[in-house]
Design a protein that fits this description.
Layout lengths: L1 H4 L3 E5 L3 H10 L4 E5 L2 H10 L4 E5 L5 H10 L3 E6 L5 H9 L4 E4 L6 H13 L8 H13 L8 H10 L1
Parallel strand pairs: 1-2, 1-3, 3-4, 4-5
């Protein structure tokens, strides 16, 4: 599994040093750059090439960084603890995120990144395995009807994924 990620350049932007450290330690096969502020993350995106950007939503204006990443053709994954909700999940996907990761699940970041790369290799949407990986987590966290707030999005989600 690590072969796909070997040597990939990843930018991680989060205002929590322990999150930056944990994610960096989870990806020893990658070349990781970290940033703890919006300004640092934006500068990195503007001046360097990255295969991936892992962006916190709160604290570093992750949605605006997501826009910058997309303009630079960088695959973006959103991570969050405070903005963990079905609504923020939908917003992240609508704004172009390839994956949405609850911080409680960031120990699986290698799996999620590999899912995205595998999907791209096969010509599938990068988020094609998201629901398979995290639906059970969302059911436990938000209840079995967690998709009801935006049924149309989730009906189309599987089709486009």
């Amino acid at each position: 599994m690590k072969d796909r990620l070997n040597g990939k350049k990843i930018l991680i932007v989060d205002d929590e040093p322990d999150v930056l450290n944990a994610l960096e330690e989870s990806l020893p096969m990658c070349r990781v750059t970290t940033a703890s502020t919006f300004e640092q993350g934006k500068e990195q995106l503007e001046t360097e090439y990255f295969d991936f950007a892992i962006l916190d939503i709160m604290g570093v204006d992750g949605y605006e960084l997501l826009e910058h990443a997309i303009k630079k053709n960088v695959i973006a994954l959103m991570v969050t603890a405070h903005a963990l909700s079905p609504e923020h999940t939908v917003t992240s996907f609508r704004k172009g995120a390839a994956f949405f990761v609850p911080k409680e699940q960031m120990g699986n970041i290698e799996i999620f990144l590999n899912d995205v790369l595998e999907a791209k290799e096969k010509g599938h949407h990068p988020r094609s395995r998201w629901l398979e990986r995290l639906d059970g987590y969302y059911i436990k966290r938000f209840g079995p009807k967690w998709k009801d707030h935006d049924k149309e999005f989730w009906k189309k989600f599987s089709y486009y994924a």
